[in-house]
Design a protein that fits this description.
The chain has 191 residues and is mainly α. It is 81% helix and 0% strand. It has eleven helices and no strands. α4 packs antiparallel against α5 and α8 runs parallel beside α10. It is elongated and about 75 Å long.
Length: 191
């Protein structure tokens, strides 16, 4: 750490590397190398170190964070869209298609003019978004109707779920329950 403090980055990196060479499982040394490489903006070496740590990561969260950081460095610092796409695809393959991954891939595929891959990505993931959104709206409707006694707002939530997915059973069940609310009976029946 003294070499780092003195600004002798190459020497510090060499010393950390010696420590890693003597103990490949020394994640503390690898963490220090990653922090140092990032601070001195040595992007290709940083990517290699992040990928190494991702392969050794004790937790899936750390592995995902490292692979995501690789993708961001490829895009933002190396301006290498193809490598960034490949990195995000690794994140997707390992951890699924969350909003961050899909958004980043969609942006990169659009910039690259990779229309077929973009269409495949959006087709594959749009159903998941529909399911997530309708589930949230139904949960909102249930909370409003059953626990907060706000049937008007619950009605809006269930209607929104049905607007997205007209055959949504949970939204229909929520509306049926609102038929028992005298002030909402007609609106619930109309929905």
């Amino acid at each position: 750490r003294l070499a780092e403090t003195l600004g002798e980055h190459d020497r510090a990196l060499a010393l950390w590397q010696q420590r890693i060479d003597s103990d490949p499982g020394d994640l503390g040394a690898l963490d220090a190398v990653i922090a140092l490489l990032e601070s001195v903006q040595r992007w290709p070496a940083l990517i290699a170190a992040l990928e190494l740590r991702a392969g050794k990561a004790a937790s899936p969260a750390q592995q995902r964070a490292d692979l995501t950081r690789v993708a961001v460095v490829c895009k933002d610092h190396l301006h290498d869209g193809a490598r960034a796409i490949a990195a995000w695809q690794r994140v997707s393959a390992a951890f699924g298609d969350d909003a961050e991954t899909v958004g980043a891939l969609a942006e990169l595929l659009t910039a690259a003019g990779s229309w077929k891959e973009l269409a495949e990505l959006l087709e594959r993931t749009s159903g998941k978004d529909v399911d997530r959104t309708t589930a949230r709206l139904n949960r909102l409707g249930d909370a409003l109707a059953q626990h907060l006694r706000e049937p008007e707002r619950a009605l809006r939530a269930f209607r929104a779920a049905l607007a997205i997915e007209p055959t949504n059973a949970a939204a229909r069940a929520g509306l049926e329950a609102l038929l028992d609310e005298p002030g909402q009976r007609r609106a619930a029946a109309d929905a």
